[in-house]
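General statements about sequence and structure are easier to judge against a single worked case. When preparing material for the folding task, we compiled for one chain both its residues and its backbone structure tokens. The amino acid sequence and the backbone structure tokens for this protein are reproduced below:
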Amino acid sequence: MICLLMHLFPIVPFRMQMWSLNTYLYGPKDDLKHRLLWREVYSAEEEAQLKALVCEAESRGLTFVYALSPGQDIVFSSSCDLTLLKRKLRQVSDLGCQAFALLFDDIDHSMCQSDTEAFSSFAHAQVTVANEIFRFLGEPPVFLFCPTEYCSSLCTPSVSKSPYLLTVGEDLLPGISVIWTGNKVISRELSPESLAEVQAVLRRPPLIWDNLHANDYDSRRVFLGPFKGRPPGLRAHLRGLLLNPNCEFEANFIPLHTLGSWYKEVKEEGKGDITSVGDEEAYSVDRALSSALQDWMKELSLPLQPGTPKRPITSSRSTGALASDEIPADPLMSQDLKAGENQVSRSFSHEKISRRGLCSGRVPLSEAQVQLLVGLYYLPHEHGPPAQNLLQDLTWLKANCHCVSVNGNGKKASPQKVEEWRDRAGRFLAACDDVALLHGAVVTSINRAVLYDLYPYIWDLRNTLLVAKAFICWLGCGASSGAELHGVEAEPWVFKGGLSGEVQMLLPVGTSSELFSHPPPLFPTSRLYNIRPFQQKDKVELYRMVRQLHQRGKGGQDAVISHPDFIGDRCLGASLALCPEYSLVLEDELGVCGCAVGILDVHSFAKRCQASWLPAMRDKYPSRPHGEALLYFHEEQDYPDSLLYHFPSQLRLEALPELVDCSVSRSLLTALLTALKANGSQGVFCEVQPTDGLRMEFLTKLGFLEILRGEARPREGVVLGRLL
């Protein structure tokens, strides 16, 4: 069904006063003829696709509602536009559709000159067109109207005094239902009192378009939590309720399942004439969520592939939303992805990933992992317990980092305070490890349909927590100067990104979105990665790695053969010796696979280097008879003051090309920038060979710009920098 079936809005409304779980509203944003090109009729091929969808809905006992959004550019007084609108809806009606919706949401209130002359107000113009279309279609039993003021926060000056809503209530024909989202576009709660006010103004009960689980406004968020904040007692004030769920079909099992539980209580309430006093007891969110989790566990154990026919609906509480032909084909169906059985050590001391065997089998997620998944991606206004704990611990650890800092701002923390800091740090690192293991479990899960819907979200969180974990490990080493670590303080939900976004904003470089927001890799991998502070025992592995990279890039040289440490000393030695606190190591199950080394203050570092490091290297590598390669340690090495004024810090990034997920290189660099920023750096630069196009592109995407070329200084290369 290609584009006409992508990103549909499966909804669960109740027809007029007959409350039944039976409706599916078609309003996809990628059907251009739904909104932008609303005047154009469907082609023969599109007609066939739409008719097939209408028939599919009918075969499943669903009322198919076709929605059209002409409000962006319709001329309400134009007989031509009205004729085109009728022609479009007549075409859909001839395909078997008997329910319709006109949507005038999210548009400008202004009218053109001809409309101003023809109508007394914007509301009058909309209502006039809606009434005429309603009559033209034969007054169908389901006809929905979405006003421009569709929630309390959009009403001017208020719901009860809004001229727009008062006109809609007075002039719109009584057979037309009015859509309403609540106090906000995304309402945390719906109360009988607020809906009673709306009902009085509209002169009919509103039909709720519930955006509680909608995620099309933020590409980093998905909502797996239960239907919540809507007591069953709302029934007396509603014409119906429509649920606008996540764009990803597989993410909607719990939202729709718990909505079914809520609806069941609505039915029981109607039969038993229960008053609203016992509403909260009648519908238990915890009980509904527990039931949904148990049923979803069964679903997750099925070997489903994207694009294949789905299982029949078995749960009595599940909704009648369309559940087939909505997922694109699995692009990696033939991939034999590795299943990570490796466990990351949870001790607060620097972790060493154990090297256990890899398994290629696919298994269902465990119950604990599913509960963690839901807790991490709960609801738009509320995190689940795992996410709450992560944020609370990270906030506390950052605020109390002076307990383990180098100087502690001149105050020595009590042993009890230090122990508390390390205990909470251990708990935070363990939680990060759980998310990393969850990421691997999702990749290797037997249900591939769920994988491809949820992978971008869990991958994004895994990478953000890699940075946060490295930051806490770095603080735990006493590398912080103890200065106040500035994040961005704001009320919850202000920043986009959900849990990933909030963790990001707690980091010193949190405002640099280009460091965090990138598309996921094409080929998911379950490999476990860890970023941690450098230890002296890592030096041998790091030297071996950079020597290997050098040999691959330029071939062997006599100097390298005669002096196996030369490349390591040249690329990493000074940083590891003089400022190891700004050196981070990237490792996977097989060992060290990358590193990032930094210098906080290049100017003072150069003086220390001249005083101790370079003399030692000149003794180790006399310039003759070993050739020009060794002249590196015998040259004057300095950077212009104009560069260091804005970019006082320097970094170097090295990683093996065998990295399956190159995004961890970005996390590694971001972790180092976080440490430099935390200790006061305002800018950082690095040197790149002009022929290294991949590295240039990588750094440019992360906000680095070319600021100095080799001709301005003795060494060859391009200098890239970015402010922090």
